[in-house]
Design goal:
With about 200 residues, the protein is α+β, with helices and mostly antiparallel strands. It has helices spanning about 40-50, 60-70, 105-115, 125-130, 165-175, 180-195, and strands at about 5-15, 20-25, 30-40, 75-85, 85-95, 100-105, 120-125, 135. A hairpin with a 2-residue loop joins strand 4 (about 75-85) and strand 5.
């Protein structure tokens, strides 16, 4: 299965989900983005791992990595392997001697471990096709007129059910242009649900 090499593009607070954050992963070779909603503890752990901040006491992900190293297990890569019913799934590819092993993990945990281990983060192409957002024409000026009636998406998700596909596509592009990845992910999910 083809894999897409990802990097962490951003980590932002989710306005529509209390206590949640949106982790934004970007395809290193294109303008595609993969927004994933994660918990606050995992967001903190990823941020600490990215900053290489040494805490007096190890976090759970530090402990996992230390445990792996003590027993000769190398974390090779983190792979977001599936997207089903709005939920992402991931695996860690580990190597001990000549043996490779796959360990199921939540994407947030896999990424928190990957940033500490310094290994690559991937997603299968099928996941990117289904859940990714394409960020094209970000540099061109926005010359289009704004929509006559703005639609509040987020807490009022039911309003998406009332819109036709053309309007949803326009709203998706608008959310992407405004870098509102949470809203874009919700609109994308509605479009995918109808297909």
């Amino acid at each position: 299965m083809n894999k897409v090499n990802l990097e962490i593009v951003g980590l932002t607070y989710s306005e529509s989900s209390t206590g949640a954050y949106v982790l934004i992963l970007g395809d290193k070779n294109s303008q595609r983005r993969l927004p994933i909603v994660i918990g606050s503890a995992e967001a903190e752990s990823i941020a600490i791992g990215m900053e290489k901040h040494k805490n007096g006491r190890p976090h759970t992900h530090d402990l996992f990595l230390r445990f792996a190293h003590e027993f000769g297990v190398e974390i090779m890569e983190a792979v977001i392997c599936r997207f089903r019913d709005g939920v992402f799934y991931a695996i860690l590819i580990c190597k001990q001697g000549d043996e490779l092993t796959m360990i199921d993990a939540r994407p947030s945990d896999a990424i928190a471990i990957a940033v500490r281990a310094g290994c690559e983060i991937y997603a299968y192409e099928t996941v990117m096709d289904e859940a990714g957002i394409i960020m094209d024409d970000m540099e061109k000026e926005d010359t289009e007129e704004p929509a006559e009636t703005p639609i509040n998406i987020g807490k009022a998700q039911t309003s998406l059910d009332l819109l036709d596909m053309d309007t949803l596509e326009d709203l998706l592009q608008e959310a992407i242009d405004n870098e509102d990845y949470q809203k874009a992910a919700e609109i994308r999910d509605e479009i995918n649900r109808r297909k």
